[in-house]
Design a protein that fits this description.
The protein is an alpha/beta fold. The protein is built from 14 helices and 15 strands. The protein has helices at about 20-25, 80-90, 105-120, 140-145, 160-170, 185-200, 225-230, 235-240, 245-250, 305, 320-330, 375-385, 385-390, 415-420; strands at about 5-10, 35-40, 65, 75, 95-100, 125-140, 175-180, 205-210, 260-265, 290-295, 310-315, 335-345, 350-360, 360-370, 400-410. An 8-stranded mixed sheet has the order 3-4-2-5-1-6-7-8, sandwiched between helices. Strands 11-15-12-13-14 form a 5-stranded antiparallel sheet, with helices on both faces. A two-stranded antiparallel ribbon has the order 9-10. Strand 3 (about 65) and strand 4 (about 75) form a beta hairpin. It is globular, with a radius of gyration of 23 Å. The termini are far apart.
Amino acid sequence: MNVKQTPVLLLTGYLGSGKTTLLNRILNNRKGIKFAVIVNDIGEVNIDADLIAKGGIVGGNDDSLVALQNGCICCTLKTDLMQQLSDLTEGDFNYIVIEASGICEPEPIAQTICSMPIMAPNLVRHGVPVLDCIVTVVDALRLKSEFEKGDRLTAPNIGEEDIESLVIQQIEFCNIIVLNKISEVSPEEAAHIRKVIRALQPKAEIIECDYCEFDLNKILDTHLFNFDNTVTSATWIQEIEKPIEEIEKEEHHHEHEHEHEHHHGHQHEHEHEHEHEDHSDCDHEHGVCHHHHHHHHHGEGEAEEYGIGTFVYFRRRPFDINKFDYFVAKHWPKNVIRSKGVCYFSDNTDMSYLFEQAGIQKKLSEAGLWYATAPEDELMRMLATEPGLARDWDEEYGDRMQKLVFIGQNLDKAEITAALDACLA
């Protein structure tokens, strides 16, 4: 029996970016596609009045559902996304749009959709939702003020830093970026914004527009989404997976581009922070993933003009947690837009940590024990089977290391390196 597949478009972007405009364009489509739209809160989304069916709300008392004249519906995101997707795929809709309002990280939603066949096979008997594309809508004006000259938008209102952190994550985890309100910034500003976006996310397609006016075919039936590729497209992942010798070479200014096959060395590096174990539906390989990455060195050619660049801080010695903490809290350089990587501390050298910063937000979380702590027989087996682990193994430290990726504007590599070196125990 051939189970019907229903494509899913995941739409992200913060409030005011133009997402609602785009949603209305999709719902107003005259192509006869019947859309089901899942939104966080119908109250937040202004659906064009002339679209709403004359009967108004279905059943009168279910305010989590709005029926539209063209056969589309708009419903509120219930707690159980899997169940809701299952109900919609059984209906007669040709397409599902999930509008992840400004407060959702896109990755867990993508994970939920992808893992349904494995996690909830009973829900996909009649129809399978297939994630087709993740589109992030960003407001050019807003990005301009956010990333201007490294001076942060440190507005006092609640949640500003969360928004900035979220915008960065949304840009990192998507297939297409809709750069909206492009006419409201100058060509120079637009070029600068593109550089910032490219520094965070070298692979996604960028569509520039005003009022979200562009050919909707660009975001429908794209078949662009692939879990592995999307999850590894962010610059920080590509940088952190470089072999150490390459990082050390770059430190000695022999920068050159080449393509490499990368293997993950440590437990935490290939987890990419996923809760679910099985993504087989999303071509997610188990254990060690092999990705072909092409490394772009920002800072060559035209990027110079805006000084947007990337570098990796790499050391073997542990940090003193108090010094590191003080540096991060009090002396963090303002022009760093994004930083992420692995680190460890002298008070417990067995534990590796994931450090992340996006905008003003900074976070440190345990990422599992280093392989160097494993029993000898297990370790020998790992070294024999994981090329990356053996490649980056150090006689004294094993796989213990500080490996932090920095992305920002006019980064002073020497200064940041010296500051971090001063935090070493």
